[in-house]
Amino acid sequence: MTTRADMFQEFLDKNNLNMFNRQDMNDEIHTGIFRTAFGIEGKNIPAVVVVDDSAFCMIQVHMATTVLRDDNKLKLYDAINRWNTTLKPFKFILDQQGNLVLVACLLNEDGKMDGDKVNAMLNTILDYLNKEHKNVLNTVVG
Structural domain tally of the chain? Predict the structure, then answer.
């Protein structure tokens, strides 16, 4: 059986996109995690593409570590709400550890995995990060 993770790997191989490391979770929904990093302002910003048997593909970019504190909750919530109202292709969340994560969820047709759509979203995210990464960090860390 060809899984969506296998289909995405075939797309990567066909297009010589070798910047991903694949980890198969060996679970019942055939989850494949494809790890990479964006080089922004001299830093590596970790990103993952999560592909499984569902119709959804998730991209997560780890923007900043443990930024949520008692003294900045309102400021962070306000900034994230402001960003999420204006940004259409992806959203920001704070995970349970207080890390700031950029998240995009893509829909795939039944039984298919659209690597071109994932690649286009990754390029959209990269363009955004090249323009706004410093501003986002100044807001959440400063």
Answer: 1
Q: What is the DSSP letter of 89?
A: S
H helix or E strand, kind and range, residue 22: strand 21-24
Q: For the residues 130-140, what does the mean pLDDT come to?
A: 94
CATH number of the domain bearing residue 121: 3.30.1460.70
Q: In one letter, which amino acid is 38?
A: F
If pLDDT is split at 50, 70 and 90, which confidence band does 141 have? confident
SS3 122: helix
Domain around 86: 4-141
Sheet containing strand 43-51, edge to edge, reads 21-24, 32-40, 43-51, 56-64, 100-107, 91-94
